[in-house]
Structures are given as C-alpha cells and as structure tokens.
Amino acid sequence: MPAARLCLTLLSLLTLGQTARAQNGELFRVGYSASADHLAPLTVTLRVTHPAGYTVAWAFGDGATGSGAQVIHTFYRPGTYQIQVSLLNAQGRAVGRTEIPMQVRGSGAERAELTVLHTADGTVRLSGLGSVLYSPEPVRVLLNDREISGAGRLSGGANTATAQATTSAGQTVQRTLTLTGAALTTSLPFDSEVLRLTNQARAQGWNCDTKRPGGPARPPLKGDATLDVAAQAQSAGMALYGYFDHASALDGSTPMRRVQAAGMNPTSVAENIAAGQQTPKEVVDAWLRSPGHCRNIMGDFTLVGLSYVQRPGTKFKSYWTQVFARQ
C-alpha cells in the first residue's frame, strides 16, 4: 500500500479599511475585501459601519451605483476606479464622504473556464467561475451538449462538459473538459468523527509546536453544507482523476474558487487534504502532527466542510478533505 500523504493550503482575500468623519464629527468606517491579485473581472465586497440613523450611497467609478451598508460589485475591465462612499442623513443629504481607489489589473486574453464540483452520487455542478470576460456576459455551461443550470447527472464513463461565452469584442470562446462518471463511496459517520476530533483538539488548545495540548483553546468549528460541497468536489476530484494537489488537475480550480462556486464568498479559506489514511483518528492525528495542517485546524476560522471519499482500485483508495472558512 502506498504511504499516506498530506497537503495543505491557506488562501485569503485582501481586506482593507479606512475611517472617515461626518460633518457632525461622528466616525464611519469603510472596508472592502477582494482577491489579493486584483485581477479582472474583480468582485469586491464593500461594507460601511456607521452610526444609527444614516444610510449609505455608493458610486463605483464605472458608471454603476448602489446603496446599503454592504454591497457587492464586479469591475469587469482593467483600470483605476475611484469608489465614492456617501453617508446620508435621514433627509437624504450627504453629511460625510470618502473615496477608495481601486486598481484592477488585466487577466490576459478573454477566455471561458469551467469549475467542476463533483459529488459522490454521480451528479456534477458546473460553473463558469474562473472565466475572464471584460463585460458582464453570462457563461453558458453544457453537459453532454445540453445546457444545464445547477446540477446535472453524469453517465458512466466519459462525459463532456463545456463552458461557452462571448467576449467584449463579440467573439465566442469556450472550454471543454472530459468528465469521468464512476462510483464513489462516502461516509457521513467518518465526516462527523473528523469534525468531532477536530473540535476536540481546538477545545484542548492543541499546541502545533509541541504536538500536544497546552495552548489557548479555540471555539468549535461549525459544519457547513456549502463547504461540504467544496470539500467533496476536492476529494472526488482526486479519486476520479488521480492527482494529489490543491489545484485541480481537471479544471485548475483552487480551494477558494471551489468554495465560491459552491456558493460562499468568505474572507479566508484553508484546505487540508490527505490520502491513504484508513480512519478519522488516523487522518486527524496526522494533520495535528504536521505544523501547517495543525495551524489550519487551530486557525481563526468559524466554519468547516468535510469529505471522505473511497474509490477502490486507485492509488490511495481513500481521500480526505477539510475546507475551513471565515466570513
């Protein structure tokens, strides 16, 4: 039997903030989070913390506007934008204003990409996330030449998945992948036990340097169904396509991209993966005795997704994934 393997990654969004002052002297704080690379198309989450009795208006610098204490906006084209934030009183008059410069860098030639989220029950969720389009054009996704929205069912053997889009210049771009449909085995009791053992280590204040309890305790992680989707996509992907890496050998997706494709936009994501371990105790013990994996387990996260997948006949047979997130 091959030796068991471990791997980890930690990815964060860049989060920045600044403080401004209203005309009456009251302070309001503006912050945003976005991918650290600032590559177009760039989706930015903006937030304002302000005193009661006020509202917020936004001008994003690309002709679009918005309102509310939290907004999400996508900058499709490279360039430098000045985001204007206005604090409005009860009469709708601006009593405070500040600006946030936003640099958006080009991502190269426009192209269609696929993000593939396999499930163990033979279905797959396809997304155009990862595509580079400098206009708000939708990405069509097809499974075996039929357009789908949400999940589609794989047939046994080879399947064809395609992403199609139109560039800002009106050209059609697409990417096609061959997907494998095969039986996989999961275990909810195994996933539940991994969660229990993980939270047990956090409660004990597991010290990642001494590899024993004795550090500060951490609050328990809450299992999250959306993160479970991303975790199962990773475990299933490794089992189906024979790789062991955080970057998918099938579609090139990263842990953050898989989490976003599953439906969450957290401020930070970390992923622990393992292959070959036979029990939850074996895999959690291995992660806790590896400093990097241990720091993910003991990290400043609030949510976790879990997935154990078994596929007989593969190199490692069993594949494990933990996906941590903080929103």
UniProtKB/TrEMBL annotation:
Domain named PKD: residues: 51-109
Entry keyword rRNA processing: no
UniProt keywords, alphabetically: Signal
Signal sequence segment: 1-22
InterPro entries: CAP_dom, CAP_sf, Ig-like_fold, PKD/Chitinase_dom, PKD_dom, PKD_dom_sf
Protein name: PKD domain-containing protein
Organism: Deinococcus daejeonensis
Gene3D superfamilies found in the cross-reference section: CAP, Immunoglobulins
UniProt key word Signal: yes
